[in-house]
Amino acid sequence: MTSFKPSDELKQKLYVIIFKSDTKGGKLFDVLLLIVIVFSVLLSMLESIVEYDKQYLIPFRIGEWIITFLFTIEYILRIYCVPNKKKYIFSFYGIIDFLSILPAFISILFSSTRYFSIIRSLRLLRIFRILKLSRYVKESNHLAESIKRSAKKILLFSYFIIIMVTILGAIMYVVESKVNPGFGNIPESVYWAVVTLTTVGYGDITPVTFLGQLIATVIMLLGYSIIAVPTGIVSSEMIRSHRMKDVVCLKCGNQEHDRNAFYCHQCGSRLPISKSP
Amino acid sequence: MTSFKPSDELKQKLYVIIFKSDTKGGKLFDVLLLIVIVFSVLLSMLESIVEYDKQYLIPFRIGEWIITFLFTIEYILRIYCVPNKKKYIFSFYGIIDFLSILPAFISILFSSTRYFSIIRSLRLLRIFRILKLSRYVKESNHLAESIKRSAKKILLFSYFIIIMVTILGAIMYVVESKVNPGFGNIPESVYWAVVTLTTVGYGDITPVTFLGQLIATVIMLLGYSIIAVPTGIVSSEMIRSHRMKDVVCLKCGNQEHDRNAFYCHQCGSRLPISKSP
Amino acid sequence: MTSFKPSDELKQKLYVIIFKSDTKGGKLFDVLLLIVIVFSVLLSMLESIVEYDKQYLIPFRIGEWIITFLFTIEYILRIYCVPNKKKYIFSFYGIIDFLSILPAFISILFSSTRYFSIIRSLRLLRIFRILKLSRYVKESNHLAESIKRSAKKILLFSYFIIIMVTILGAIMYVVESKVNPGFGNIPESVYWAVVTLTTVGYGDITPVTFLGQLIATVIMLLGYSIIAVPTGIVSSEMIRSHRMKDVVCLKCGNQEHDRNAFYCHQCGSRLPISKSP
Amino acid sequence: MTSFKPSDELKQKLYVIIFKSDTKGGKLFDVLLLIVIVFSVLLSMLESIVEYDKQYLIPFRIGEWIITFLFTIEYILRIYCVPNKKKYIFSFYGIIDFLSILPAFISILFSSTRYFSIIRSLRLLRIFRILKLSRYVKESNHLAESIKRSAKKILLFSYFIIIMVTILGAIMYVVESKVNPGFGNIPESVYWAVVTLTTVGYGDITPVTFLGQLIATVIMLLGYSIIAVPTGIVSSEMIRSHRMKDVVCLKCGNQEHDRNAFYCHQCGSRLPISKSP
């Protein structure tokens, strides 16, 4: 889907190596890039540990600059060899690539390196682009498809959760706020409700009144059954995508058929040849 | 299902806009109402934060009165245009609508606005009435149906849980109460048992004796397998409602058939045409 | 399965009322008994709260004696009317019934009522015997059957868990014990491993060393996937018991067949008429 | 698969008893070995409790030496009777067997017995070798197969989790680190993200800023839906392995067929006789 002037051989070679992963060179590049990214993330992790940062200031800075140097070259090459420059520069990955080198240069003026970390870690997302083209493709497709299918239900369900935690939070606020600083205001109470309903249960905020503990008990038992719902949704979708083949019936347009059905169970007409899931 | 005197055009118009969502006007009204409700909930959240309440007292009060004003008008219009006034006023939503404006007027005499929050947040439930008529209808039906189907089993299961936590709580009370203030009485011990069995684990109450920790360990491993049961129930119901079509066999009355079955597997008689799930 | 001398009408009447639940009288008795049991449990809960016990000493004692009186009569009647006395007295419920009245009489000599609670709460288990004969019978059978089916796998799985927590606990003990009193000995470390792996996470014991936190992270991510296994087991069994009918093939003895199969998929021979699950 | 010189009867007898479990002697040996292993683990647990270790120093030491003696004999016998000595010595279990006796002898010079515990506990893994040959074989195979099948997806999923917790940790570090010592550096923040996402929720590190709590809320709700994915994966695989029979179609090589299919749903050719799952 990309057109080249027959002349620039190099550009095309680079493009295939940097942007594609189906050639030997492309795979190698991806692996090397991945290593550098992981290394850069580890580095910003270590830098964030104050004592280490003091102790190994010099090597850390050198590491920073090497990584920045490599990322910069990569970025320039990407822009150089990509056919549709605008499209890349303003693409999700394009922006991340740019942001991940920018701070280093800014930090010459303002020496805070703290905020590298986030942008760097975002580069880890590239892993998925690489996985896309790897032996995981079938699994990831199957996963993605099931999740996509259940997304709508999960979304609907989370509306319900959000409303519920708001109401529960408000109730607990009324019950506990007088005696319990932890429930000092509704947002905090809602935060508590989420912590409880998701069974995370930090324990930084806990009910102290009898009524509060009673309500909390109900919320927990509720959450215990509620946790079943998203699981049920995903499970059923996954099993479905195992059992169903995605062939559209040419007559009635029904899209779900048993894996070993030859005829549409809706209208009984012969199904086109199936691509097994 | 509602009868009008041909005269009052306006009433009917209003009714369709306020109570129905299938017209353009109705949809718009619902969205606007939703925005006001969400805004009112956010407001009562902010009010509950003491420092903000002090700082922005005036704007908050004004906001309050605007919302109360809007809700009051809405309430009056609802009563005005609904055919069966009694039915609406004493309906679940009717009562909530009333209660959500009442406190504001009371607060002229008694200035505590604290308890607005709950009633306001209950109005969020209207979202579901609106969703009911939206593109989520299929998903929500499917969810609701599955949950309804599994409700009985879940209820039965929660009996079991409640009995278990009572017994476990009593046991832990006997084991720990002497040395551990956290297990000072049985209700608290039961509360602990719920916190543990649901894997919430606040850590506000934890066993300190060796025996107590041993029992706790057993309870946790128990809870770990028990958490599987409600999930299993919901999952199986969801998958079932995928696999089954809800056609009643005209001969033997069996209500469950494979999605692609043409004949009842109970009595072998032809099934009526299916509405696909 | 119980034989009577034609003479003693009364005995038989009593037996049907007290031990069976299919007659009107039997149902009534069960409900009344249940109420008394629940009441007795609530009473021992309240007694366990020191301040209440001080305040309402007299009414509590009176309540105690009323309950003990009722339970004693019930116990005597049970022994009187049951055909096989030995069998009942040494049955699980028989022993509980006896133990739930014993302490009251002992407490005349030694006034500690603390340990009533457990035995009393055990009486709650009677609920299941009553449910057995109620409208929940189908659901409870289905649940019980599925759980029974998956019990063996769950058991096998919990062996695995127990071994794992032992090993993980031992490792964490070696890593943390020097600097962290929480991991003072292996049993405590194992307790921590269980708390972590089951995602309860009290936080009463937490790793402090970097290595400790790293291992903890791995354990958690492990637990996150492991929690899937028991759920998977139960879910699959439940779905199976939906999909399968429990008819034994008369030819090959295969016990699992699709709900709508007329012929054994093992040997192809006609199946006997199915009792739908 | 093991060849013996006809001469050494004893060796062969020993080999069958020690390494195999299908004879009466073999079963007995396994059970005895298991008891000794469990006992040894319990002993190192008790030793790790300081007060006990002081009190019962002598009996503990004696116990140690008895166990070491038994394990040493076992090890020698294993080497003596196994046909392929190298293979055993450098096998996983061979190394564990060796390491589990080594420390005792070293401890003559250096008296720390602390690190016995781990290696000892690793011997518990032998249980599985024994289970392999027991009545659990069918269940364990079914479990193992399902887990193996879903391993790839779970792995893919955990990549995703690891990347996510890194990003989330980095974000929270930026948000909280200034005011919250708990988020002092990125690794700790990542540790917190794992604790939260897996719903363990120790509460040793909790967000204090409003923004922090908001992000935490999102993470929890995320985790709540995400926990569904591995469960869905395992469930679907388990159900599949119930529904599918593992017969390879001789024509098209398709490996998945409905349990009661006689013909391949891919190419329609007759399937070879099935071994029921």
TrEMBL record, chains A, B, C, D:
Location in the cell: Membrane
Domain Ion transport, first and last residues per copy: 27-237
GO molecular function annotations of the record: voltage-gated potassium channel activity
CC annotations in GO: voltage-gated potassium channel complex
Membrane topology annotation: Multi-pass membrane protein
Pfam name, any one: Ion_trans
GO biological process assignments: action potential
InterPro entries assigned to the protein according to its UniProt record, in alphabetical order: Ion_trans_dom, VG_K_chnl, Volt_channel_dom_sf
Keyword entries, A-Z: Ion channel, Ion transport, Membrane, Potassium, Potassium channel, Potassium transport, Transmembrane, Transmembrane helix, Transport, Voltage-gated channel
Segments passing through the bilayer: 28-46, 58-77, 89-109, 154-175, 210-234
Protein name: Ion transporter
Main location: membrane
